[in-house]
Structures are given as structure tokens and as C-alpha cells.
Specification:
The protein has 269 residues and is α+β, with helices and mostly antiparallel strands. It has six helices and 17 strands. β5 and β6 form a beta hairpin.
């Protein structure tokens, strides 16, 4: 891997990149992995870090498929053996981000479209909008804040008694987006804690307690996973401008959670 060349591409869009060797963070995954691509902070701000053991780092084939200087986005390809992983790296409103992209995108537009879930694509199809308009944060089909898409749900009637106030929506252990009003239906009841941010079923929870009595003190909370979720009102997150939904919108999470790199991530509400 030519780390200097990769770093120059990141610098073109105003970001920093560096390869690093593992430290204690590596072991939080609890499994053997070839590498990780993360955003971390140091005294100079955020930096993209590609972390791998020295022998594995030398064997990684890392390529820049496209770098958009003006839009501050970059599509990165990482090859490990027969596996090809794609990552969209860039700046969204106030912060840098990295997203694992499903499929075989070869440019930035394709990567952004690949991150849109089926419900969002269907809404864009109904609105008759083209690829360039589909990748805008706000268009005739949906609104977006970070990894969350909000598709209008005209005609949805909700029992006011079932509306929750100032509810968080989050991807696994990520920072939650706070929604002023939320209505949800269906889904799977789970329990979450700091050690299991993506949640476990009731049966899994009981097995954990049976094998480790100390687990009862891990601060478990009951949540719902993969419910149909609707939001209305202000949507707030410190990394994004506040978004206002004037009527009910169905909430969709981007498809990053469906990739091999993010296989343990889920929509938890």
C-alpha cells in the first residue's frame, strides 16, 4: 500500500489519513480481522485511520476509486485476498464520516445510491427524480440527516396515546438522533447494554445471566429492533443541523448495516 499517495488524496478533500498498528482498541472486536477503518481524534482534530498488524498492512491493496475535491467525498477500495470492501469517506454538514458501502460501486454517486434502502429508492422512483437529485440531503422524495432517511407518510393516522416524545433512534452503539415525536409498530423486543449495544433476545439474555451472574449489573434496557418507525417534529443531532418534519415520515436507516463490514449493526429504537 502506498500510504503517501492515499494520504494525498485525503488531503485533496481537506482530511488526514494514516496507517497505524493495533493497540488495545483492536481487541474490542473479540475476533480476528484483517483491518479496521475508523475516524479518531487527536490534538489536530479528526483523522481517518487504517489499522492493521504490520504483516497484514503490507498485504492490503488500497485504492482510491474517486476523489471529489469540491464535494469533499472519496471512495476507497480495500482488497484482502478475494474480498473487496468499499468505503465512502467524506464530510457531511459538520463532521467527517466513513460508511461501508454494499455492492460494487465504482464512483461516489453510485456509492451514495447504494447506501439508500429500498424504501427510499421506491420513494425516489415514485417522485421521478434522477441520480443527482437522489443524492441530495433534501429532495421531493425524502429528507436525510446523517445515516437516517425520512420519507413522507401521507395519510398515516396515529393514536396520540401511542406517540413517544423526544425519542432516540440509533444504529447500534452510535450517537442517537433525537426525534421530537415517534410512533413505532411491530419489530422485535430486545435487551441492550454497553457490552451488547446491538441487542440480544430474551433467550440470549437469560443465557448470558446464567453463564455470568455479574451481567445482571450491566445496565440492561429493553428496546425494539427493526420496528416500522415514524417521526414528526424536530430531529436533532450535534453533528447535523436540526431537521424539521412537518408531518409524519417513515424512518429508514441507510444500508451500511447490511454490509459484511457492519454485519453486527441493527436498527434499534
Amino acid at each position: 500500500m502506498n500510504s503517501e499517495s492515499i494520504a494525498k488524496h485525503f488531503a485533496r478533500m481537506g482530511a488526514r489519513f494514516r496507517p497505524v498498528e493495533p493497540d488495545q482498541r483492536w481487541f474490542r472486536f473479540g475476533r480476528t480481522i484483517d483491518y479496521t477503518l475508523d475516524l479518531v481524534r487527536d490534538k489536530h482534530g479528526q483523522v481517518f485511520e487504517l489499522c492493521a498488524a504490520p504483516d497484514r498492512l503490507a498485504g492490503l491493496d488500497v485504492q482510491i476509486l474517486q476523489c471529489g475535491k469540491a464535494e469533499r467525498h472519496l471512495l476507497l477500495l480495500v482488497k484482502t485476498g478475494e474480498t473487496k470492501d468499499r468505503f465512502l469517506c467524506g464530510h457531511d454538514e459538520r463532521e467527517w464520516f466513513v460508511a461501508a458501502v454494499p455492492g460494487n460501486a465504482s464512483n461516489i454517486v453510485q456509492a451514495k445510491l447504494a447506501l439508500q434502502p429500498d424504501g427510499v429508492r421506491s420513494a425516489a422512483d415514485r417522485a421521478g427524480i434522477g441520480p443527482r437529485e437522489r443524492i441530495r440531503r433534501h429532495n421531493r422524495a425524502f429528507l436525510r440527516q446523517g445515516e437516517w432517511f425520512f420519507v413522507p407518510a401521507p395519510g398515516l393516522h396515529v393514536n396520540p396515546k401511542l406517540v413517544l416524545k423526544n425519542e432516540p433512534i440509533r444504529r447500534g452503539g452510535g450517537k442517537p438522533h433525537m426525534v421530537e415525536e415517534v410512533f413505532r409498530t411491530g419489530g422485535e423486543s430486545i435487551l441492550i447494554c454497553s457490552k451488547h449495544p446491538n441487542g440480544v433476545s430474551e433467550a440470549e439474555y437469560q443465557r448470558i445471566l446464567a453463564t455470568n451472574p455479574k451481567a445482571s449489573g450491566w445496565g440492561w434496557q429493553r428496546r425494539v429492533r427493526n420496528a416500522a418507525v415514524y417521526g414528526r417534529g424536530a430531529v436533532r443531532h450535534r453533528d447535523h443541523a436540526t431537521l424539521t418534519l412537518h408531518d409524519w415520515h417513515q424512518v429508514h436507516m441507510n444500508t451500511e448495516s447490511h454490509t459484511r463490514q457492519m454485519a453486527n449493526v441493527a436498527f434499534i429504537d
